[in-house]
Records
---
Amino acid sequence: MSNNTVDVVLIGGGVMSATLGTLIHQVEPEWSIHILESRDEVATESSNAWNNAGTGHAALCELNYMPEGPDGSLSSAKAIDINEQFQLSRQWWSSMVQDGTLGEPSGFINTVPHMTFVRGEANVDYLRRRFELLKGEPLFSDMEFSDDAMQIAEWAPLLVERRSRDEVFAATRSVSGTDVDFGEVTRRLFDHLVADGAGLHLNHEAKKLHRREDGTWDVRVLDRSRRTTATINARFVFVGAGGGALGLLQSSGIPEIRGFGGFPISGKFLRCDKPEVVRDHHAKVYGKAAVGAPPMSVPHLDTRVVDGKTSLLFGPYAGFSPNFLKHSSWWDLPGSVRPHNLGPMLKVGLTEFSLEKYLVGELMASRDKQMETLREYMPSARSADWEMITAGQRVQVMKKDPQKGGILQFGTEVITGGEGTIAGLLGASPGASTAVDAMLDVMQRCFPEQFEGKWRAEVLRRIPAFGTGLNQDAAAAAASLAETSEILDLDAVKVA
Ligand SMILES: Cc1cc2nc3c(=O)[nH]c(=O)nc-3n(C[C@H](O)[C@H](O)[C@H](O)COP(=O)(O)OP(=O)(O)OC[C@H]3O[C@@H](n4cnc5c(N)ncnc54)[C@H](O)[C@@H]3O)c2cc1C
């Protein structure tokens, strides 16, 4: 580890640090970058393929980005925004497949159509209205709708096999959907950074952050193999420690973290590797969340492509552990309580009854009950074919709210402080899919002058849609989808 002041320290070896480090290296190739990762490999927490669902979130199938208003109204604004964010990822990854950084694309991204499946008259009506609104939007123009069982069976046979003839159901499908192995993206980005001179320090856990009078940061680091400590001094620190970010940001003493707390929810999935089952499904099928359930609990039946092998995943089911990371301590939750976040945390605890009810229901659910939920999507599912796996921890953000005292937030929160010398990421949704958008936001907020100077041109060279978006220009949207599909070796998208 360097004894001198380095330009950038990235804490955490997940997709966010990998993305930010690579973006910074592209605009400032001479800057020294050091990565601290507490485990013996990168991408072992949320970014690992089996710790998340691998959905390239583009709002093609997730109903939570387009909820119905109390008066039944629908707005496509949020869905378009999420899709636009994913297009930035597609363009950036494409530029790096072209220059050789990311290697062969099928190792990290594959075409898997995105579908939405709903049951019951009211839900079918909602899905039809959602489709009518979205199909005119350029980034959604490959979306199809059907309430015909034969058609849906052609798209996804397992949804229909052994389903009662009396059931009313409907689906939409977008062939431009993707499955992404974010762990592989992370590993390939770090490999490239290290080959270009970045320092990757595995088994090195950041313990504490302290700002010097000259404005630089001392990061106190524990070498877990040798049980020794050291300090690394940096001009800019990114806290990409996933669930570990809250504690580190608190240790930095920046006022911007005051009032923030975290509540961990573990994700669990049923996984099936049986070739005779897996071969009959090729889609990511999202349903509707149960009333009162949080947005990230939307059930989905997914095709996954990991290490060249295809599996099915169904979930998420929720679990609880006070750890903020899969591999950390039960002390995380109680240890994160501070005088400034106690009020907001208590307020959330006293008001979020629907979340508490949902969690208790999930924790009490028997294996039979879990299989019953799966059979709502796949009536023919056999318990013996499915194994329960524990995925990553999501630390939901709780924060101060002037009106309510404290609120729970399901999105991502970028925290910056120290006049742009430190940034960190809290929360987990929409997550890895929008890492490029989130990290460009960090760069703009922390390095406004450099960004508006020479950085913007380099960013635009790789990500032409940055800043302008694509959806308002049908020709540009069609061209970008076609081009990125070709470079990333994805099925061609039919665009209007
Ligand atoms: C169940 C589940 C399903 C999800 N599904 C999707 C999905 O389908 N699509 C999607 O886009 N996103 C999804 N996400 C979200 C996505 O996985 C995350 O947003 C993303 O992986 C977060 O990346 P990260 O780099 O911030 O954190 P992580 O990948 O968690 O990386 C943090 C790293 O920091 C290290 N670390 C922690 N503390 C320290 C320390 N003190 N010092 C040094 N290193 C430290 C950890 O070991 C880890 O390697 C899902 C998440 C979960 C949990």
---
Amino acid sequence: MPQSTQLGDSKAAEIKAVSIGKTFGAFHALRNLSLDIARGEFLTLLGPSGSGKTTFLMILAGFTAPTTGRLVMDGEDITDVPAEDRSYGMVFQGYALFPHLTVEQNIAFPLKVRGRSSADIKRKVGEMVARVGLSGHEKKLPAKLSGGQQQRVALARALVFEPSVLLLDEPFSALDKNLREMMQQEVKRLHQETGTTFVFVTHDQSEALALSSRVAIFNHGELLQVGKPQDVYERPGNRFVAEFLGEINLLPLDALRLEGDRAAGQFEERTIVLNRTMPMIGSDAVAAIRPEHMTIGTGQHSADRNAITCRVEGATYFGASTKYHLRTRTGTSLAVSMPTAATLLIAPQTDVWVSWPVHQGFLLPVGS
Ligand SMILES: Nc1ncnc2c1ncn2[C@@H]1O[C@H](COP(=O)(O)OP(=O)(O)O)[C@@H](O)[C@H]1O
Ligand SMILES: [Mg+2]
């Protein structure tokens, strides 16, 4: 792990989920899910509401038994090991602080139930209070704390006994934007300092991309793709992943063909060239390009860029960036996002070029 002192001699765990399935009656909440969680990584489970993220986290925690499949931790089958013997740290929605205990009593609780000596408890709690920035608040009850401070207590209580795994289920979804960003940085730092394996659940794509060493994308109880934030964002394996991670422009291509190590296809009267990222020649595909990778111009464009003609329909100002809404000759709508400082004021109904570097476009199968 990078930087700083370790909290103790706790050993981060690695977990292998092998063909996990979970049904509730006839309903499949998880289907044949296999995933290797590496020792000390920050893995985020990302997906829309109802996609099975919490169900999978509850199975990892030992609160829910899978219908099929096995869980293996550090080489040992733990599928039937009860939650209290897994001893993971947890910060869940609705997994509240004890309201009648002070900050330090809340943090001390997991050490007390583990029968640690009072000297040990005093030292560990003191360290943890300082680590989450709550010095001076030790004697307060949770009701006297702000939402962010309460989440810090919850994090401290989950980490104080040096668990081998920390599970977090949408811990910041109730916080406002600024506080959420602060807590994200806090969690990232705690991950680096403890070296513990973190499994974090969110439905917020920017939170997932900002925090994680890897992101696992769920939909309808299936794991669709897992990879580093840059890889899943820049090279999504299918349309759901591409669209869930951010806005994307899709151009249907005709006459798809190979040209050396590149793919090419026709869009309206233009040839679009793409890096050949998938063996899908012969099938229908769309060219996919993120709005921030495209630029608008009225003059010449260089040969290493794709370009299509569009008409500007409008613009939305977002402060740091401005998003242009455009339409191609045959009616495909496009969005182009440019830094506001770099944009000229382009009036609606102007005909422009929209261009992008060849390497920023990729192919997605139609209908995926
Ligand atoms: N105990 C349960 N009984 C019946 N259905 C459940 C139960 N727990 C979860 N589900 C269903 O499983 C699906 C996945 O739920 P969940 O894992 O909570 O999704 P997420 O956390 O991604 O929002 C949902 O459709 C939910 O209604
Ligand atoms: Mg959930």
